[in-house]
Structure formats: structure tokens, C-alpha cells
Design goal:
By secondary structure, the protein is an alpha/beta fold. 39% of the residues lie in helices and 15% in strands. The protein has an eight-stranded parallel barrel with strand order 1-2-3-4-5-6-7-8, surrounded by six helices. The two termini are 17 Å apart. It is found in: Cytoplasm.
Length: 247
């Protein structure tokens, strides 16, 4: 049985003060203890949010990582830094990182390995553009992203990896893949993992991400292959995020 997982990606939102106010509001609600909840906050907020999350079941996530432990990489954050701050999860390969900051399948692979080596759990993002979907090559694109990302990753590591399928055309646009379409793609991703790792495919958790909100979360979570959601805008409103966790 795979534990459902809801991760909020705050993106470049919330000062430390705003972050703590949001966390306190989230904490004021009763959360479903059978769902793993994560908040992936800006680097500036990590330390303060970590303290605020003490004595809760909510996990802390970062939004990016560099694969090297240290060095001349101005503006980057290393796995050692995140580990010391008590970070649990880290988003890797988000479509915005790929689109705006030249993230590649190769750097995604390096970041996954580095995260695992430092006790961090990667949330690995994959997904196709609208042009790729309309051209009928979405499966080819996603399969390539998965195979490149998991090069050199051992079977034992799959228990500490989450995959997030984000159709790029559905992120922040208000468009959402139908629950059936999302379920079919997640099933395809699971089969792709199975080609490499066999029955271990049944253990890895796969999320859907793309304009997920309280009004569509139940339909998505009712699908067999969907283990959770990577959520953007809805995670910035306490009641909405809580409703997602308590779907």
C-alpha cells in the first residue's frame, strides 16, 4: 500500500514572515495522518519553517539543489546545506527549472544521486509540452526523461524517490489533464520504471501536478495509479492546502 503524498510547491512566494503565518494557519487545522504532507518553500524560509514544523507530521522540502557539496557555484545551494537545515525532500527537474534555468536530463540525474547520497528524498518532475502532446509523442518524451533521470540509480533507492508527472501545458494555466488522462500517464510511468526495476514499480509513489485544487483532488486521488499531487497555487492558501491533504 503506497502512502498518499501531497506536496505544496510555494515557488518564489512568501517572505519569512508570510511563510510563518501560512504555516501557523495550516497547523490550526486537523490533518489526515494517513497522508504525507510536504511544504517546499524558498531557500530563505527553510530554517524558520523547519522550526515552525516541530511537533507536526508535515515534512519540509526545498525547490532545487546543486549536485556538488561545495565550490565556486555562485547562488547555488548544496546538499550538505539542505541536510544541515533538516530538509526532508527536494524538488528536482521542475518544468520551470528546465524552461528558465537550463535544467537538463543530465543535471536532473546528478541532482538525484547527490540528494540520495545526503539523505534527501528527491521529487523528480517529468512532463511534456502542449506541442509534444498534440504531436502524439508525450509517452516518448516522458519515457526519455525517466530513463535519463534514473541512470545509475539502484533499486534500493526507489523507496526514497517520488516521481511527479507535470504536463507543462497544465501548470499555472488553469488547464488540467483529465483524471483518466493523468492516470493513464502515471500508469505508463510506472510501467517504464518496471522495465528497469521489475516489481519495485509497485512501490514507487507517483504524483500528478498541474492546476490541482480542492475541486478536482478527489477525482484524481480515486484513480488507481495516482498517489498524490505536487501542488502550486493551491498550496499558498491554507484552507485549500488542508482540503487537499484531507481529500
Amino acid at each position: 500500500m503506497r502512502t498518499p503524498i501531497i506536496a505544496g510547491n510555494w515557488k518564489m512566494n512568501n517572505t519569512i514572515k508570510e511563510a510563518l503565518e501560512l504555516i501557523e494557519e495550516i497547523k490550526s487545522y486537523e490533518l489526515n495522518k494517513d497522508v504525507e504532507a510536504i511544504v517546499c518553500v524558498p531557500f530563505t524560509c527553510l530554517s524558520d519553517v523547519k522550526k515552525s514544523l516541530e511537533n507536526t507530521e508535515i515534512k519540509l522540502g526545498a525547490q532545487n539543489i546543486h549536485w556538488e557539496e561545495n565550490g565556486a557555484f555562485t547562488g547555488e545551494i548544496s546538499p550538505k546545506m539542505l541536510n544541515e537545515m533538516g530538509v526532508d525532500y527536494v524538488i528536482i527537474g521542475h518544468s520551470e527549472r528546465r524552461q528558465y534555468f537550463n535544467e537538463t536530463d543530465e543535471t536532473v540525474n546528478k541532482k538525484i544521486k547527490s540528494s540520495l547520497n545526503h539523505g534527501l528524498k528527491p521529487i523528480v518532475c517529468v512532463g511534456e509540452t502542449l506541442d509534444e502532446r498534440e504531436s502524439g509523442i508525450e509517452n516518448d518524451i516522458v519515457k526519455k526523461q525517466i530513463n535519463k533521470a534514473f541512470e545509475g540509480i539502484e533499486e534500493k533507492d526507489l523507496d526514497n524517490i517520488v516521481i511527479a508527472y507535470e504536463p507543462i501545458w497544465a501548470i499555472g494555466t488553469g488547464k488540467t489533464a483529465s483524471a483518466s488522462d493523468a492516470n493513464n500517464m502515471l500508469g505508463f510511468i510506472r510501467e517504464t520504471i518496471g522495465q528497469k526495476y521489475g516489481e519495485k514499480k509497485d512501490h514507487i509513489r507517483i504524483q500528478y501536478g498541474g492546476s490541482v485544487k480542492p475541486s478536482n483532488i478527489k477525482e484524481l486521488m480515486d484513480k488507481e495509479e495516482i498517489d498524490g499531487a505536487l501542488v502550486g497555487g493551491a498550496s499558498l492558501v491554507a484552507k485549500d492546502f488542508v482540503d487537499l491533504i484531507n481529500f
